[in-house]
Amino acid sequence: MALFQIAEPGQAQAPHQRRLAVGIDLGTTNSLVASVLSGSAKVLANEQAETSIPSVVHYQEGGATLVGTAAQAMAVADPYNTIASAKRLMGKGASDLSETLFADRYLFDTDSGSIPAFKTQAGNKTAVDVSTAILKALKNTAELSLGGELVGAVITVPAYFDDAQRQATKDAATVAGLHVLRLLNEPTAAALAYGLDTKEDACVAIFDLGGGTFDISLLKMQRGLFEVMATAGDTALGGDDFDHALAASLAEQAGISDISDASQQRHLLNIARHVKEQLSSQPNCNFEIPLADGASFKGSIDRDQFNALIEPLFKRSLKSCRQALRDANIEKTDVDAVVMVGGSTRVPLVRDRVSEFFGKTVLTDINPDEVVAVGAALQADVLAGNKPDSELLLLDVIPLSLGLETMGGLAEKVIPRNTTIPIARAQEFTTYKDGQTALALHVVQGERELVSDCRSLARFELRDIPPRVAGAVRIQVIFQVDADGLLTVNAIEKESGVVASVDVKPSYGLSDTEIEQMLSASMEHASDDMHARALQEQKVEADRVIEALSSALRSDSDDHLDRDERSVIDQAISDLQTARDGDNPDAIKSAVAKVEKVSNTYVERRMNATVRKMMAGKQLADVEGDGSNHT
Amino acid sequence: MQLDFSSNYFELFELQAAFNIELSELDQRYQQLQRVLHPDKFASASDAERRWSVQAASRVNEAYQTLKQPLKRANYLLELQGLMLNEETDTQMDPMFLMEQMELREALGDVESASDPYAALDKVGAQLSSQISSSSDAYLASATSEDWPQARTIVRQWQFLEKLRQETKSLEARLDDAEA
What we know:
Chain A is of the alpha+beta class. Helix content of chain A is 38%, strand content 25%. Chain A has 14 helices and 28 strands. Chain B is mainly α and 180 residues long.
């Protein structure tokens, strides 16, 4: 319970060890982990000295997995058991498969639920499972490299990810045993890496074209403040699509008409990727494709031909740029700098056309593959509490409007896109039949008028509504979007104050029970250490809570608590200390919960006092400035 | 959890409840509040504090967005006067105003078939901006003289204009995308 360290920047924190926290860029094609070491953020290398690993997982018979380069090496030989670009399926339903590049690349099991699963020799694996395996590998890299356990991680997501995609990412991290400090939007992370020392106000465009997703974010930056004005994008546009377009063209040149064979497909994609990379630095490129009859086709392609192939894909990104500018209410000329992020911005056509669009040279100072992880590491360092005096403040937005289904299948917007988060909005409902005790709600995300054109997020059922005549009951439904961009919904019956129970059925996500099952399954192998580890974690947590609360109480208990209130808290702390010295993690956990519960009111009063004090301080400063005679 | 934010949005930002506020002051206080309340400041705090922070920061964001946009600010001042707008019962409108609106709407409808659609759109946009600016001035005058019924009439017209402005933006998006 780190009580208001930020509000009192002058006071030094209790001496403590540096808390190990990392930033993770969980990319479509590559993934990285970075951390702040002696003042600057660095990408961490694994035992093979790789600072970036392919986001590929190979499932072996019996359940063992290979992750990264070793997995990618299996892609051609064993395509169905080697899963790449799983990020494109995060938060997606079985019905979305046809819109992705996946339908013919893998074997799918779509019967087992609404979430599609890759059929592998180790069983069915969802995109969350694949991401979990990658995150575990990165966590391992970080812990070996930093020499200790992580307190948490900032994990980046495309800014244009919807609620289901964000939730799926957070679920994968939870199952991988990572404490998520924050889900951070990729372009915002890049802005952070670029602009911490910005003194003047600047308006910056971050153009982020990765392996599978595209984001454009417009930010206002000044002195540690990063305010996202608008974001737009396409979560199904990236270098992968360039590769596919190119592979199809190369196959056509080689006279290959049928590329349904999965191995050959992977092989073609590998060749296409290589050709694409060559064409970034040279005007033309030779290639060789092995044919079925043992011979091989030799051909060549130049940059103009490649540009013509990707032009229609690229144009989609400019459409998003225009939308972001409109939403931010600014002109192209208001943009002071354009930062390029993501491997696909190495393609010359992309750089040239973006530069042309905004009318200025684009910035590529920081390695476009690493900049997101570096930014995430910087934020992780602050969120973990290693920089109590930091001026860093990120104000991000929700990328897509949140709405409710109304009569006639129309979507009514409750929170419009590009609203600064966190945000809460309330909507009132009533019953339409006498004695009605339940109400069904359908939450959707997207910009279209029709519910069927938006993303279905969840269906809620409000129950236990007091039976009354139609229209007599007033139910307030509160939509709360947190700083991760994740939505929670609460409902309250206004007259009686009864909180109606809300049943959440995520349309394309995992239920809490499923996550718990996955967690326990993933820990089966390590059950021996589990108890010791849980105990250690709880002890650390207990120490943290006791220290934070005790020091707060020492400083201002008398201002906020009477004698009785204080003694209740003291008792809970003392109970916690006893539990902490024992060896039962569950007992410590419940003692911590008890302490937090009894100190709630104190925390609240203290918080309010801090706000009042801060505002009062501000007022005094103003008064001195304007020379009036207030006291 | 009850927040100690029962104060209205102007009080929250330590501003006088008036239409012509200093936007730079609003921005400054907004940043000041978020630097203390934002959930990023509570990343390793207890669940209770984290919840509190999300709620408090949400309220500050809502307040900021309301006060920052002139029409929302105007409407909020009416609310503080107990003069809520009601779309279902507010049907009376000045016929002159409605005529003007119909003309603007027709002009907007003709944009796509114009020889230079962007020029046609800009023309409608300019007319709208000028009318919105007049509404803003008229509101300020009414609010200053505390003629709230008049201020309410102005806000209702202003809402019409703002809706039309949103439509010009959607149209611009369609034009842009067709061009590309």
